[in-house]
Design a protein that fits this description.
Elements: H1 13-24, H2 36-39, H3 48-59, H4 71-80, H5 82-93, E1 132-133, E2 149-150, H6 165-177, E3 179-181, E4 191-193, E5 198-200, E6 205-208, E7 213-219, H7 227-248, E8 255-261, H8 271-274
């Protein structure tokens, strides 16, 4: 037998039978003796923590065993078996008796300062394309996203870009009734969650009237109830509630969020006239 060649020459018939017994016998899954058969012909000395890990694998509630790896190999083991491990964990989560805990949603609110400087807003445009008057409807609305618009009297930026003609028309309304601007990215720290990763929300307009501060989003009618729009709206409304609470501490104006459908925006309307149709 090939294994006999590595055994000591002084091996007695008794010891031969004993080693054969240890190598072939079956032990209960939770028995420490189960480890003995693996150590009989081991060529290295195990450290105590390695023996403890091996014993834990025998006592594991997972009847199909566990994966053992050192610190160096653990990442590779997890990476190699990531699909199998994900499927196993997902299956266990749906087993009867699994404990579920549902936490409250929301996010941490932290007011670091009462105002933020206006962030620079840079736009790109074709060299031979002039700055268009915001009050003039473009002949080709499909190219509006590439146009620069100016002629503002109450906008905090000299020029602005619009993603739709609805935004341009709404800007004309605000020109009459409020001081406003289209925020640059990172101007407002508003985050919403759609899927696993949080994303930053940049509203279309922010405007100040005599009585309040408005955060406005204009959307196509068929997009008003999409999951993304709903998530953005919830995050913005929570932001407005917290901003209003902070403003109340020094007598400032309250904040309000308004979601406006594209088909109710007309240049001859007033901001107060839009209020009843804004969601």
């Amino acid at each position: 037998m090939p294994a006999a060649a590595s055994l000591p020459q002084t091996l007695t018939p008794f010891h031969a039978k004993y080693y054969a017994y240890e190598l072939t016998r079956r032990c209960p899954p939770d028995s420490d003796d189960r480890l003995a058969s693996a150590l009989v012909d081991a060529q290295v000395d195990l450290n105590p923590h390695q023996i403890d890990a091996a014993l834990f694998s025998f006592e594991s509630p997972l009847s199909r065993g566990v994966l053992l790896a050192d610190e160096v190999g653990l990442g590779k083991v997890l990476q190699f078996h990531q699909r199998a491990l994900s499927a196993l964990i997902h299956a266990q989560m749906h087993e009867p008796g699994h404990y579920w805990e549902r936490g409250e949603g929301g996010y941490e609110v932290r007011v670091s300062h009462g105002f933020a400087p206006l962030r620079p807003s840079a736009y790109s445009a074709e060299a031979n394309d002039p700055v268009h008057d915001c009050r003039v409807e473009p002949a080709d609305k499909t190219k509006i996203g590439r146009m620069l618009f100016g002629g503002f009297a109450k906008c905090l930026y000299r020029v602005q870009k619009f993603q739709s003609d609805t935004e341009r028309r709404f800007a004309v309304i605000l020109e009459r009734d409020a001081i406003r601007f289209k925020p640059a990215r990172d101007q407002f720290q508003i985050f919403y969650r759609l899927g696993s990763a949080p994303q930053q929300y940049v509203p279309d307009f922010v405007a100040e009237t005599e009585t309040e501060l408005l955060m406005v989003e204009t959307k196509a009618r068929n997009e008003m109830t999409t999951p993304e729009v709903a998530a953005k709206r919830q995050a913005a409304e929570e932001w407005c509630v917290n901003a209003s609470a902070h403003a109340a501490t020094y007598g400032g104006k309250p904040w309000r969020y308004a979601l406006v459908a594209h088909d109710v925006v007309a240049e001859n309307m007033s901001l107060s006239g839009l209020a009843p149709v804004a969601n």
